[in-house]
């Protein structure tokens, strides 16, 4: 029962995280491209972060708990020894990559944009969204025993 509750929390947080990125990519990025202004993306970011960041934290915590439920403790992460551990390790690598991209965007990219979005920003948003969707697909593989 505990595992199921943790899984439900994980899925709800993933819905917020991935859904938010899909909305950003499919609704706000096209508007920013048309207007050549950051207003839409800044508006979304300001409104999504208070919900998105807590959902990311819930994803991390529940993911770690479920990893241990599957018998994959921290000492087995990134050893790629069994199908479940492979999925967990790939998801962790994608999470680390996403966080690195987010930090670089907030610290280096956004301060230099001066309300003029760039192709690099659109590419970053696209990559982060594709990573989020990929993590959902990887998560679905737990049902069939992993990779």
User: Main sheet?
Assistant: none
What is the string of helix and strand elements?
Answer: HHHH
Distance between the termini: 25 Å
Radius of gyration: 17 Å
Structural category: mainly alpha
Shape, principal axes of CA atoms: elongated
Fraction in beta strands: under 5%
Number of helices: 4
Q: State mean pLDDT (0 to 100 scale).
A: 94
Compute the number of strand runs. Answer: 0
Can you tell me the residue ranges where pLDDT is under 50 for at least 5 consecutive residues? none
Instruction: Please give the share of residues in helix.
Output: over 70%
Q: Could you explain the architecture of this structure?
A:
The chain is mainly alpha-helical and 147 residues long. It is built from four helices and no strands. Helix 1 runs antiparallel to helix 2, helix 1 packs antiparallel against helix 4 and helix 3 packs antiparallel against helix 4. The chain starts with a helix and ends in a 7-residue tail after the last helix. The model has no long low-confidence stretch (mean pLDDT 94).
Mind sketching the topology for me?
Layout: H1 2-35, H2 39-69, H3 83-113, H4 119-140
Helix pairs in contact: 1-2, 1-4, 3-4
